[in-house]
Amino acid sequence: MSIKPYLQLVRIHNVIGSALSALMGYLVASEWHIIPVRMIISSLVVALIAAGGYVINDVYDVEIDRINKPYRPIPSGIVSLQTAKNLAYATSITGILLSLILGIFPALVALITVILLFEYAVSLKKSGLIGNLIVALTSALSAFYGGLAYFTGNWLYFVSIPTLYIFFFTLSREFIKGIEDYEGDKANNVRTLAVRLGMSKAWKVSKAILVGLVITSPLPYWLGFNIIYLILILILDFLLIYVILLKETIENSSKARGVLKVYAIGTMIAFILGSLPVRL
Questions:
Q1: CA separation for the pair 279, 184 (Å, rounded)
Q2: What pLDDT, on the 0 to 100 scale, is given for residue 1?
Q3: Which helix (H) or strand (E) holds 28?
Q4: Dihedral angle at the C-alpha atoms of 43, 124, 88, 186, nearest 10 degrees?
């Protein structure tokens, strides 16, 4: 049995990105005062819960994916629906149980996140904006969770900065993804911004958020992050500017989403290095 379809099903690259986000949240919140066990467990919890969320989303997205992405493991028939459900339950429950090691508050956040991800897959995704907000919130919680695992000193102040940044960035990316999936979403009555308002307006809202991110991106430097952050984020901003200048077509939404993935990883690295206790 090949493991590749299952890695595709959990979206292993996104899962690694979620774990990196939790790692970033921990390092930022702790200012690099590392307790290895708590840092590693928080990243594992986020990875497991993210994997469960991606799988259960594919379970309930199977009809849409038959149109938009027929090559995915479930619509292609490589992985059965029941097997996918079992995998989603197993990873999510394991993540919740593991979170108990970190304490009651991390366990509650883990449980709430799992509930939100499953509710999103079952019903909230088709609501459009509410679904987009849920995805943005749960993505931002990945970073927040890393900070919560530290839970000492000024952890909340420092972790709130990348958490807010991730929320608005993910919201814009979700709107763009809705443009990319327009045909399948419209056929299945998924009320995304693109379906409700049209692709042009969805593009404009997405770009407006990205403009806001470009304008505010230097602020963390004056809020306590070091010069490494400022240098990296100013370089990364050119990726956002590239997306902002793209023509507003379905084809370019796919291109934009790819660029934004690179930007997301780069931004996490900027926050990680930018939280190093150095002043240059």
A1: 50
A2: 61
A3: helix 12-30
A4: -110
